[in-house]
Amino acid sequence: MERSPLSLAQSLLRCPSVTPEEGGALAFIEGVLKEAGFEVHRPVFSEPGTPDVENLYARYGTGEPYLLFAGHTDVVPPGDASRWQYDPFGGEIHGGELYGRGAVDMKGGIACMMAAALDFIRANPDFTGSIGFLITGDEEGPAVNGTVKLLEWAKGRGERFDHCILGEPTNPNQLGDMIKIGRRGSLTGRIVVEGKQGHVAYPHLADNPIPGMMRLLEGLLKEPLDRGTEHFDASNLEVTTVDVGNPAANVIPAEARATFNVRFNDLWTPHSLEADIERRLREAAGNTVRYALTVEPTNAVAFLTPPNDFVGFVADAIKAATGSQPKLSTTGGTSDARFIVKHCPVVEFGLVGQTMHQIDERVAVADLDRLATIYRKVLDSYFAA
Hints:
Layout: H1 5-13, H2 25-35, E1 39-41, E2 44-47, E3 50-54, E4 56-60, E5 66-72, E6 93-94, E7 97-99, H3 107-123, E8 130-136, H4 147-156, E9 163-166, E10 178-180, E11 182-183, E12 185-194, E13 198-199, H5 209-221, E14 236-243, E15 251-252, E16 255-264, H6 270-285, E17 291-295, E18 303-304, H7 309-322, E19 327-329, H8 337-340, E20 346-348, E21 362-364, H9 365-384
Helix pairs in contact: 1-3, 3-9, 5-6, 7-9
């Protein structure tokens, strides 16, 4: 049976695995990897208030070093399928591009990982080391019953990884643009300023919370959090909503609420960042603004895989296949790499992300071949070293 990147990607795209449904995607991967000699497991994890999620863990070999490929087969909903040019779960090819939900994010990447691993094993059946796959069905959802629990499950079995490649679509414009060697953390906070409701014509009988909220937000935004680091941009705080819930023009509201999110670099921990936010608010409030701050718990902490031999293997493979020297970046949102880094160094490299989550999500067929070639070159260099 053909195991090209394209044929594997088409088979995966034809599985309607919208979070949290498995949709046949993991079953397909299991069949392909078992046929190649992988030991495959399909653990299901549960948590009250969240849907059960199927996951997949597979390993070929028992030796060291151990290189892990990671990703997710769950996809976001396609939306109104009638607005797509082609069936979002059809895996159709038109104009040299493969269409379907997950083509970029990230079934196409998984197909390339599989094709590269299968090709490497065929050529090197007795290589020293191990190749693994850690695939979740919960990345686009709550991320509760997926990668975190799958990693702990594997750790409980005695599995230890040396390095990991996560196949998220990291390239902004063309294949070879960018490797993610880290990610910023994310922290969300909510502020409530207390006032006293009253008639606008009698302000001395009321206490308007809006001027107080304006003072607090000015205090948060007045000075930059930092100037950035060698591998990270400056941390940024964005106010995402300010609301008083007041439909009446002649009523002073009782309270004002605001929400903000901080994307922070490796100068901060959630604890130190919260302390600095509290200091800024306290200084802005003085003795006149009554407020409460709530900071949500976060599992998104800034991390970095420093440029080293492993990062070099990936960068060299990209340059050899594309002619481009990839940028080493820590930009963008969060990903499952934030969980994997607790178990081993991780880098992210996948397809071009311009159409991910969009109507008519698609990938160039040529990019599938090139990405599989890159992963194969990484395997060659990694195990030769």
